Each structure stands twice: as structure tokens, then as C-alpha cells.
Amino acid sequence: MKTSFASIAGSVLAQSAWKRVLFSLAVLILLWLAIGWSVAIP
């Protein structure tokens, strides 16, 4: 299931460049939230 999801996500991201940009932005936001959460709650 994980491999099929990765292949589907890869095909979708390959079709549209802006979706790839949005995905990378989402990852950066999640990383920023994780760092902020770890700093706020030691």
C-alpha cells in the first residue's frame, strides 16, 4: 500500500510542478512546526 501511494503521489507531482512546490512548502511548514513545538515544550 505504501509503495502504491508513493507511485501515485510521484505521478501526480510529476504532472504538475506547482503541486511539487506546494508539497515542499508543506514539508517545510511541518518541520518548522515540529521545531517550534520542541522549543516551546522542552
Q: TL;DR of this structure?
A:
The chain is mostly helical and 42 residues long. Helices cover 90% and strands 0% of the residues.
Summarize the structure in words:
By secondary structure, this protein is mainly α. It has one domain (2-40). 90% of the residues lie in helices and 0% in strands. The protein is built from two helices and no strands. The protein has helices spanning 2-15, 17-40. α1 (2-15) crosses α2. It starts with a helix and ends with a helix. The mean pLDDT is 81. Keywords: Membrane, Transmembrane, Transmembrane helix. The chain crosses the membrane at residues 21-41. This is ABC transporter permease. It comes from Pseudomonas amygdali pv. morsprunorum.
pLDDT averaged residue by residue: 81
* Approximate shape: elongated
State the low-pLDDT regions, or none: none
Main sheet? Answer: none
Radius of gyration: 14 Å
Strand content: under 5%
Order of helices and strands: HH
Number of strands: 0
Portion of residues within helices: over 70%
Helix segment count? 2
Structural class: mainly alpha
Distance between the termini: 36 Å
As for the number of domains, it is: 1
Please describe the structure with a list of short key phrases separated by commas or semicolons:
membrane; 42 residues; mainly alpha; ABC transporter permease; 2 helices; transmembrane
